[in-house]
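Researcher: Let's continue the batch. This sequence belongs to Acyl-CoA dehydrogenase/oxidase, and it's 430 residues. Same format as the previous ones, please.
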Amino acid sequence: MFIPWRSSTLKFSSHVPCHRAFTTTTPRPLMATAGFTETQLTVRDAVKQVCAAFPPTYWRENDQLAQDPAEFHAALAKDGWLGIALPEDLGGAGLGVSEATIMMQTITESGAGMAGAQSIHANVYATQPLARFGTEAQLQETIPGIIKGETRICFGVTEPDAGLDTLSLSMVAKRTADGGYKVTGKKIWITCAQVAKKMVLLARTTPREEGRKASEGLSLFCIDLDRGHPGLEMRRIQKMGGRAVDANEVFFDEYPIPGDSLIGEEGKGFKVILHGMNAERCLLAGEALGLGYAALGKAAKYAKERVVFGRPIGMNQGVSHPLADAYMKLEAAKLATYHAARLYDASREDKSIRMDEVGVACNSAKYLAAEAAFTACERAVLAHGGMGYAVEYDVERWFRECLVPRIAPVSREMILNYVSEKVLELPRSY
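Model: Same format as before. Here are the structure tokens for Acyl-CoA dehydrogenase/oxidase:
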């Protein structure tokens, strides 16, 4: 398989330029790309080519029909993109979160929106704890299939009675005589559960009152989803945006899983998933940025073409100034996002980088990018006037989807709490 970003095999065709020359025919990209590495820009160019085969009409139809974008997932898998941040010896590219983030941004920015990103989101970040803490058998059984697109995966953490309070999870995984477990409980907002073959699942193996710390007693598993088993039930949630990708309630009732599905040590699952949380903040930030740039680009184009009272509406400062302000907010959030991603990647080797620094950077990036995307998407709808409400102009779809980065995987308010406590050293409020 040709991996376009590997330095040992970089062979650029005419449609994947290694250097960018000024021309009068190619429009200037909305996002400034100065400061990105050659590898990041190569990823961006190559992913953009894959996305070009899936125009807005594809995403509109899938959104309206609530239909999984299986063809898009398969196209990314074909070129090896699902393994961008996974080890090379398992078939991945062995790149970092910085490259994965620009890939996710490129997907949303192409017009695919959050639906396009969410169709592969778990494949990119939920596999990180598995790749780091999984046994050799688990890795060989799972990772190659994910990279090839043969195995879809979902992430089972959130519960209806716990929400963001992960340490209050009540799903139970009880040991059985044969060394396995039986899982009982409910998960909610599980993306792609309808199409996934496997789930990375967080469950309680020790009652909370028996643990020395609140973070102890939770264990992480990589399990098969046997939809024919009476102990497993899924219910799809009808939602506002990103309808092409399913979200679900998942019910387990004495559902059996083997002992070797445990990832890492029993009772240490919370520490294991923390490895993937900061990475996910970066990915969500990138996805939000792409959504914002897509909406802003569409609004600017419309403002140049739409003529009212004998002049383009973009000549009116009441239209142009809000869009210019939205652009600057996106650019600022972009700097925060890729600073956080670089810091995350560097922390793997540079032990002088503190984990709390990484956490603050990643949470801040996610917050700023989500807010910037919301501003851009809202103003894009308003710039279109009545047509902003029309499906064919896409901005209404992106506006519906831009709420996701503000809510998930952690709310704005919890990020503000985190920064208040960790940076400003203010008393904890929860």
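Researcher: Any comment?
Model: The first helix runs from residue 38 to 52.
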